[in-house]
């Protein structure tokens, strides 16, 4: 996979669901699972009542407002949170793309094991920590070390 898609698609779909515009199968899953959680935590609600409450919470915009508050609490600026939560927003123009990709290879030559997408180059200390367990190839140089990961795998 040369161009992993990241989690922007999942974020976009989560926001669309909070606008009550998600695909029918996803919305049914959201209502069903949410109803189960509500039913288990509010024993006075039947599963059907809990499902109706989930539908009301999403259609009223309360779920979207709570999502906005949550992403702001996690460090997203208010203007970006507001832009993401606007109806019809082009989230792929708003959500950032990683500026750097670091490839972590597996011991079998020629196969990429993991790619890390990140906004800034990895600090040497982080690379050293990771490299003590697995081989890391920073984008600007090639590092060949024996991996110790086999010590942990039987």
TrEMBL record:
Coiled coil: none annotated. GO terms for biological process: pyrimidine nucleobase metabolic process. The keyword Glycosyltransferase applies. InterPro entries: Nuc_phospho_transferase, Thymidine/pyrmidine_PPase. One of its GO terms (molecular function) is thymidine phosphorylase activity. GO terms for cellular component: cytosol. Keywords: Glycosyltransferase, Transferase. Its EC number is 2.4.2.4. This is DeoA. The lineage of its organism: Eukaryota, Metazoa, Spiralia, Lophotrochozoa, Mollusca.
């Amino acid at each position: 996979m040369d161009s992993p898609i990241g989690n922007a698609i999942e974020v976009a779909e989560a926001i669309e669901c909070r606008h009550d515009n998600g695909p029918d199968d996803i919305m049914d899953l959201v209502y069903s699972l949410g109803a189960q959680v509500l039913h288990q935590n509010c024993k006075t609600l039947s599963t059907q009542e809990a499902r109706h409450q989930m539908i009301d919470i999403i259609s009223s915009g309360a779920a979207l407002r709570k999502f906005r508050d949550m992403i702001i609490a996690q460090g997203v600026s208010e203007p970006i949170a507001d832009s993401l939560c606007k109806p019809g927003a082009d989230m792929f123009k708003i959500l950032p793309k990683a500026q750097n990709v670091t490839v972590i290879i597996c011991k079998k030559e020629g196969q990429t094991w993991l790619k890390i997408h990140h906004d800034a180059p990895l600090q040497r200390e982080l690379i050293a920590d990771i490299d003590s367990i697995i081989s890391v190839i920073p984008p600007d140089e090639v590092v060949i070390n024996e991996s110790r990961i086999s010590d942990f795998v039987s």
